[in-house]
Amino acid sequence: LPLTSPLRFRNIVCRSRDGFLLRLETDSGTVGWGEAAPLPGFSRESLTETESALQQLTKSLHKLSVDPNQPLIEILHALPVSGKELPSTRFAAEQAIATLAVQSSRRQLRERLSETPNRSVPVNGLLAGTPEQMRERVAALLEAGYRTVKMKVGRGDLDKEVSLVREIRSLLPATIRLRLDANRAWSFDEAVRFCESIRDVDIDYIEEPVSDSSRLVALAAQTNIPVALDETLPALSAAELERFRGVSAVVLKPTMLGGITRTLAFVRAAEKIGARVVISSTFDTGLTVATLAELAAAVCDEQTACGLDTLHWLADDILSPRPVVECGCFPSVAFDDLVA
C-alpha cells in the first residue's frame, strides 16, 4: 500500500507498506483475516522470510479447530510458530484466528480478552516532520479532540530540539499530555543533557532516549524524567522486564512482539513493575489497527492514550470502511462490518 509521504527508519526510506494477508475460512464459511507486514529496519524477519514462514504455517492451520466456546487464549497458544523468532508471522496467525473466533461467537475481541473492557480507546496524535509541520499538526490535533500528543525528537541539534519541545508544550493546554520519542538517538550523556534541560517542562514520558537501554532506569533516576521502553522489548522475554523496574511505561507493539499471547505476557510483567501499558501500531493497515484497538480496550487503563494514530500515513487501505478516530478515541470495532 502506498504511503502519503515517505517514512525514514534507520537510514531506510519507506514509500509503501508491504506485507501479506492470511485468510482463514471455516467449513461454515466464516472468514478470519491476519496481516503480516514486517517494518523495515525494526522487525526481526524480512518480507521474504515472512512469506516462507506463512507458507509453512498454512500447511498446519487447516487442521485447527476454532470452538467459539473455548477460551481464545487456549486456541492461540496451540499455534506452531514462535512469536519471538517470527513475530510478524505469529501475529498474523493469531489475528486471523482471533477475528475468526470473534465472528463465530458474535462477541467483540475485547470481550473475549477481558471481563471489563473499556468502551473506547484514547490515542495519542503524532508530531513529526519540520517544526512548522509540527506547529500546524498541533492545532489540527487539538481541534480534533486529542488529549495526548507524541512528539518525535533526537533528529537534529539537541539545543534546538529543547527549544522546540518548550514551544510545543506552550501551544498545548495544561490538560493535554505531551510525550516524547527519541528512538534511541542519544548517548547517555546527551540524554542527560536533554532531560536536564526540560526538567521544568511537563511531559508524560520520553521513549527510549538512550542507545544503551540498560542505562534507561539510571537516566530516569538521575534526571527525574519519566521514561518508557519501546524498541528494546522485542528482544526481551516478559520475565526480563523486571530488570527495568523504574520505567514509567512500556510501549507494546504486538506486531513486533509476536502476537496477542506474547503481548499479554508483557502486560502482566508490566503490572508487576508498576509500569503503564501503551499498545502501539507500526504503520499497519486498518485491519491491524482495529485489532490493536480491541486489544488495548482489554488491557490498558481507560485514561492511557495508545499509539494507534497512524492510518493517515496510508494513501489506501485494505478495509472499507476504514476505522476512524473520533474525538481522539477509537470506538468499538465490529470485525464483521469490515470488508477486506
Describe the structure.
- The protein has two domains: 2-109, 2-Layer Sandwich (Enolase-like, domain 1), CATH 3.30.390.10; 113-337, Alpha-Beta Barrel (TIM Barrel), CATH 3.20.20.
- The relative contact order is 0.15.
- α7 (188-197) links the parallel β8 (177-181) and β9 (205-207).
- A seven-stranded parallel β-sheet has the order 6-7-8-9-10-11-12. Strands 1-2 form a two-stranded antiparallel ribbon.
- The chain has 340 residues and is of the alpha/beta class.
- It contains eleven helices and 13 strands.
Topology:
Elements: E1 2-9, E2 12-16, E3 20-25, E4 31-36, H1 47-61, H2 72-77, H3 87-105, H4 109-113, E5 121-122, E6 124-127, H5 131-144, E7 148-152, H6 158-171, E8 177-181, H7 188-197, E9 205-207, H8 216-223, E10 227-229, E11 249-252, H9 254-257, H10 260-272, E12 276-279, H11 286-299, E13 329-330
Parallel strand pairs: 6-7, 7-8, 8-9, 9-10, 10-11, 11-12
Antiparallel strand pairs: 1-2, 3-4, 5-13
Helix pairs in contact: 7-8
User: What's the level 1 CATH class of the largest domain?
Assistant: Alpha Beta
* Structural class by helix and strand composition: alpha/beta
Strand arrangement across the biggest beta sheet: 6-7-8-9-10-11-12
Radius of gyration: 20 Å
Order of helices and strands: EEEEHHHHEEHEHEHEHEEHHEHE
Number of domains: 2
How many strand segments?
Answer: 13
Q: CATH superfamily name of the largest domain?
A: Enolase-like C-terminal domain
**Overall form:** globular
What is the name of the CATH topology of the largest domain? Answer: TIM Barrel
Cα separation of the termini: 14 Å
Largest sheet: 7 strands, parallel
The number of helical runs is 11
Average pLDDT, to the nearest integer? 91
